[in-house]
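Quick one, T. Sequence first:
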Amino acid sequence: MGDIINKIILMGRLVSDPEVRYTQGDSPISVCKYTLAVQKRFKREGEPDADFIRCVVFARGAEFASKYFKKGLKICISGRLQVRSYITQDGQKRWIHEVVIEEQDFAESKNSRETNNDLNNDIDNNDDSFSDLLDSLGEEDVPF
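Structure tokens:
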């Protein structure tokens, strides 16, 4: 069993600002959740341009994300895939797939992002239509 590994590395843009909450109890722990939009390299006709990946980070990582990460920011994360299930009120079983983050960092500088946004506005035939995708998505459009 020593050869089995569960490691995820992703780079994408935040769909919305991270949400931080705290656990109950004598020593509350911060829990931060966010969704990362990861652009697909290849896609079939009619498919979305990106996959939307749920992410969760705890403790100091959660505090960092809630303080410095904002909607549209390009970040890089690594962690492990976690699959869990729950039963809804009407008795149906639902599955949740999420990345439990071990490391997270900026994938672009603030100046670089502002410069890229200015360039994207000037170029009509831009391959990186990711900002447009993020802007067009509402909370109800995120596929979970």
